[in-house]
Amino acid sequence: MSVAGPAAPSGKLFSGRIEIVEPDGRVSPYERFAITLNPDGGRTLRTVTRSPAGDLLRDVNLMTDADWRDVEAFGRLFFKGRAHGSILRRVVGDRLRSWLWKGDGEMDYAEFDAPPRMALGLHPVSGDAWKMNAVDPDLDADQPLVVHTVSDSWNGASLGHGLKIACTVRPMGREILASPLGPLDCERFLWRPRPGKDLHVWRTGEARMLAQMTVGTGERAGTVYRLCALDEEAIGPCC
Known about the structure:
Structural class: mainly beta
Radius of gyration: 18 Å
């Protein structure tokens, strides 16, 4: 007689939409996302971003381990009617391995050092909430954050092996945020990705999803990215 082993752990799937509110009040669809809480304790974020002008389309897949460390990312970019290519990244120990397929299909490989708690930047706005995983939310002080980005432009309109950007994040405590979905219990952060640029980030729930990001100072000041739709479902045992 066979004895069944323990059931595989189940997870959750969150899916939703982010809209952009321009400083003049115009509201446009911006990003769709899905987050899974994986059976091994890690999490995966998948996003599709389309700029309001319709000239940028980006697909991103980002995975963390059980400790919320970024370990894998994939991104694909189309901009102004042209395929700019795809990039696959994997953190192995203290190394970041990067495979880049350019728009013409040519592949290039590079390696970089990967300090602890480094964030992988592929430019989905939903992923900006996960960049806050690299700081201590209970420490009321400016904290260093290292992001290895694929593009140093504000909207990520280029794609390459990229570079590391050193910036700071200051946790601002918990806050009940008024949102299109009603009040949301959030953690709030003040992120300074570069001199003269202040971003206010709110994240919510066990999936640490983006509830809102407001551009405080710098380019596009006054722009708001906000959660406008959300669904949650259980994922049963996979085997």
